Amino acid sequence: MSLLNIKNLTVEFPTRRGVFTAVDAADLSVEPGQIHGLVGESGAGKSTIGAAIMGLLERPGRIAQGAIELQGDAISGLDATAMRSLRGRRISMIFQDPLTSLNPLFTVRQQLVETIRAHLDVSEAEANKRARDLIDRVGIPDPDSRLDQYPHQFSGGMRQRVVIALALCSEPEVIIADEPTTALDVSVQAQILDLIRELANERQVGVILITHDMGVIADTTDKVTVMYGGKVVETGDTSQVIGAPRHEYTQSLIAAVPRPQRRLHRFPQLSYGGRETRFAIEDLARSWPKVENDPSRPLLEVKGVTKTFIKRQGLLPWDRDYFTAVDNVSFDIRPGEVFGVVGESGSGKSTIARMISGLYQLDGGSVEFDGKLVSDLSDKARQAEYRKEIQMIFQDPYSSLNPRMRVDQIVAEPIRHHRLLDGKAVDQRVAELLERVGLGAEAAFKYPHEFSGGQRQRIAIARALATQPRFLICDEPTSALDVSIQAQILNILKDLQEHLGLTMLFISHDLPVVRQMCDRVAVMKAGQLVELQETEALFNAPKTDYTKSLLDLMPRLEDLGDAPDGA
Amino acid sequence: MFSYIVRRVLQSVIVLFVVGLVAFAMFNFVGDPIDNMLGQERTQEDIDRLRAQLGLDQPFPVQYWKFLMNAADGNMGVSYRQGRPVTDIIAERLPATLELALVSGFLALFFGIVLGVVTAIRRDGWLTNAVMTVSLVGVSLPTFLIGILLIYVFSVELDLLPSFGRGEVVQVGNWTTGFLTASGLKALILPAITLGLYQMTLIMRLVRSEMMEVLRQDYVRFARARGLSERLINFRHALKNTMVPVITVTGLQLGSIIAFAIITETVFQWPGVGLLFINAVQFVDVPVMAAYLMMISVLFVGINLIVDLLYVAIDPRLRG
């Protein structure tokens, strides 16, 4: 008998337009001490399965069919009170974002103690002792003093440890981890996954690990179930599913994962389901202004830039605490090159992007573009000229587009701001841009919420191209997207470089992607540039220990073999 | 933390100086008080004497400085109409207004928060719909109309409650209170409801929308996933987070309960500072108006300061 057994589970959401089936006849079983991966793209129904097990389906969702059994007892269809006594007691859950899953107004101790006392009949003192042991067990140093701190005083990784401690409060039999490391850095991700692995072994807990990251699946899980469009398409031992996938979808999903080992010309796109998007960046080249770049001179020169932020406000200047986000960093970017910046969160990557784009005032150093100083924000004329030449693509396509503006207004805004064209010509350029990024001219009359994440990111790209810039800053352009969509966006960016000769600053924490995209890579650590090399040299022979450790931490699909060279 | 308080206090002082300047400017620019104080048969000699006596012959900055010094001493001048120190008059009237504001503020806060939380938790019950509809009426009807309606129903038609005044009051030291007599308490009911109804509906709607927002947050889902009881989730986790933004608006609303008690006090002939102010305006009694202005601004600045400190007390992210 399995620990947790899901049979023929169907979850439906009745809507005004009919019944939407989020999960369609899914089967799944988990054994004690086993980590079972649940993988698929967003909308595949993986999180819905997690919510159904917990009895936390968003209304009006309901289990239409099938059964969920814990140790042989059916738990689907229990009433609210019975379900609550199960939640957190026998089944626990870990959410994706440790920043938002802890209540900011209560200390870690308060949250642990209330959870322990909600499930176990123990005294206050006993609960406190258990809380301390749990915090110690999940590897938080100095548990006695950290217990009385608030969530915001912990780093992302430490917070996720607190969340795990909360999930362990009552010795659960099953833990559902819904994208537990997606919001974390690679190095922290590895530690959290190790912790989950250890705890599963030590306490013989069955873990369902929901993720969209094939690397995490390959590294951590014993078994894996692949979902597509609400259906389970394949299930089996991880090594078998990843090494020799049987289903066509699994095959193309695995092929779409960027490989750290080898550089390909194009990212293989997910072909399953006939959803390959056609875009035609090369057609833009005809109307694109030809700029003669001087190949002997760098297009962008960053000289010793420094940025400090006030960490703690004080009444008097010497009372304030400063924090140096970027410390005396210099590099050049050659015309037509894709220049990568990698590093963990807090290493100053995004700060550099904002300094180059003129969103932050420099506290030291200078930035020169095409031989002219552009870091003096008070020179309005130069700034206006410069901002036409550089454009930015942001990480989150949901918050970087104004939801109250129509797509044509969004794309036309930079054109109108810089008074580049007027009247009909604006509409024509907007239509052409939308056409070329594969959205079609009719997208102009819709609003951002009508598009998926990948489509939104293409709107953002069209907007960035509107002023016909020479330089693009891409700040983690695909980290909010699924693997299949990621390939599409990265191929568009590659085309921009190839056909339009755009120069790019590409910021990412995803090393396999960086290897595919960039010509040269700078590695940042705590505000300093620790290494700068040609991409291949960096990946094959890193010079510093820090880079080496970053490369070692990449989740790998070692068993996968090489992906076919898709183009 | 300490520097935060010091900065806030400094800002408050600056605000008070500016309001003081405006209040003082009224003396000089709202007509010549001498005209009002002396009758028709005045001589130039009388005028000059009074002008010197009131210090009005001195340059503007000197007058302003004296005004501030006196104000700091609690001396706001002498009422033109009653010929008594303004401070005494206000001290006499203030208990009535404060008692009224206290009761209606309490009503507004208590019912506003409770109803807001309940309607947020039971989003589509019939009770919620009823409360929301009634609250719409509360927001949209002007205060004086509510007052008049209440008087019509409860005083004229049903003859249950008095329609004006404070009823019998008891003197406790310098404070006159209506809390200790039956007629005083009865007299409080209608004005307190009138004054608090708008604030109550506003607070209720605010609490409801904030609470609904908070209930969607991840930490509430996580609290539920940990198996905490609904009571603990709603009243411990969600309510505290709801209070952070609610406090700002509520603080300012409580300030305006006192400041804008004017209308209610007029409708019910409540002998408080609002009524005093209205009478002062009718007779261009500038010292009373200036003192009222200063009093209200001290109140608002004080409430704002308390709100800022409450933020820090509730939200640990603002400390340190």
Rg of chain A (CA only): 25 Å
Mean pLDDT of chain A: 86
What structural class do you assign from the helix and strand content of chain B?
Answer: mainly alpha
What is the level 1 CATH name of the domain at 281-285 and 336-360 and 374-560 in chain A? Alpha Beta
The stretches of 5 or more residues of chain B where confidence is low (pLDDT under 50) are none
| Residues in helices of chain B, as a percent range | over 70%
Distance between the termini of chain B: 6 Å
Globular, elongated, flat, extended or rod-shaped: what is the shape of chain B? globular
Structural class of chain A: alpha/beta
Tell me the name of the CATH homologous superfamily of chain B.
MetI-like
Largest sheet: spatial strand order of chain B? 1-2
Briefly, what CATH class of chain B? Mainly Alpha
The order of strands across the largest sheet of chain A is 6-7-8-3-9-10
Task: Output the CATH topology of the domain at 281-285 and 336-360 and 374-560 in chain A.
Answer: Rossmann fold
Q: Care to count the β-strands of chain B? A: 2
Number of domains of chain B: 1
Terminal residue distance of chain A = 47 Å
CATH superfamily (homologous) name of the domain at 281-285 and 336-360 and 374-560 in chain A: P-loop containing nucleotide triphosphate hydrolases
Oligomer: heterodimer
For the sheet with most strands of chain A, the description reads: 6 strands, mixed
Q: Per DSSP, what share of the residues of chain B sits in E-state strands of 2 or more residues?
A: under 5%
